[in-house]
Amino acid sequence: MSCRLAALFLLATILPAAAETPAKQLFGAVEAPAPLAARSIGSYARGCLAGAALLPVNGPTWQVMRLSRNRNWGNPVLVGFLERLAAKAPAVGWNGLLVGDMSQPRGGPMSSGHASHQIGLDADIWLTPMPKRELTYDERERVSAVSMLAPNTLSVDPKKFSDRQFNIIRLAAKQPEVERIFVNRAIKKALCEGATGDRGWLSKVRPWWGHDFHFHIRLACPRNSPTCKPQVDPPSGDGCGAELQSWYAPPPPKPTKPSKPKPPPPEITLKDLPPECSQVLVAK
Ligand SMILES: [Zn+2]
Q1: Is 188 a residue whose pLDDT tops 60?
Q2: Dihedral (C-alpha) 104, 53, 30, 58: value to the nearest 10 degrees?
Q3: Could you list which residues have their CB under 5 Å from ion ligand 1?
Q4: Exposure of 241 by Cβ count < 10 A (0-12 exposed, 13-18 middle, 19+ buried)?
Q5: pLDDT at 102
Q6: Per the count of CB atoms within 10 A, which of 71, 84, 141, 171 is most buried?
Q7: How far is residue 38's CA from residue 235's CA, in Å, rounded to a whole number?
Q8: Banded pLDDT at 1 (limits 50, 70, 90)
Q9: Does 129 have pLDDT greater than 50?
């Protein structure tokens, strides 16, 4: 049986049963990448990854954290990018980078932690520099990341968020492959207040919930991925005015009459992902 026929046969037999299974269970269960041409398929929060490359758990200037999650996979473009960024980190005062979640071996939705990170173009980088020694497997599981926020969460804690953190985020944002960087609103505020000279890079740095322990790098759809769905451009400008203010707006008042709780959104299944992702899931 040809490879293609075998894949179709597998699809026909496996997928009816898999159709209703949450896609995060299917993609979370696969331990190796799809042996197909490398490409990111679909959108950052609805897609998958073929031909993933592995970021080695140790490099000269990086270490991967939480190895049990098996999420240090990405489009080879992302892996190459992270290796180059890590090599530049010592120039801005970092011994190296601690790399958090990238993607699962075949991308797709994850059982915990993220809505995006599905197509091998997202990576979380800890805001704590890499120590000088190699961390053990156990330490990489257990060491807690450090929040950069002051206790009131409105600003950063200057004892934790210093020039070093500022400089690594700016360095990442200035790389042409980077389309977005997500940080907590208080970190965006600190960047807005601290930026001098060129402020163009600030438009890529977007406030988002969480992201006070790490920053999130998102690369643009690379050339190797014709079915990668790009995001719309961020609004022009540095985002330090009304947009940042909107993250500090008081929450809307609670309705006086209790409303019915909303049902949880339905789980993403294979039919919600690009059809190519069903092939990626079963490719051998
Ligand atoms: Zn992230």
Answers
A1: yes
A2: -70
A3: 124, 216
A4: exposed
A5: 98
A6: 71
A7: 31
A8: very low
A9: yes
Sign (positive or negative) of CA dihedral 89, 44, 55, 179: negative
Q: How far is the CA of 215 from the centre of ligand 1 (A)?
A: 7
182 CA → ligand 1 middle, Å: 8
Gap from CA of 37 to ligand 1 centroid (Å): 25
pLDDT digits (tens, 9 = 90+) for 241-284: 999 999 999 888 877 777 788 888 889 999 999 999 999 999 99
Alpha carbon of 69 to ligand 1 centroid (Å): 14
115 Cα: distance to centroid of ligand 1 (angstroms): 9
Taking the C-alpha atoms of residue 160 and residue 231, their distance in angstroms, rounded to an integer, is 32
For ligand 1, the distance from its centroid to the CA atom of residue 114, given in whole angstroms, is 6
Domains of the chain and any CATH numbers: 3-249+270-282 (3.30.1380.10)
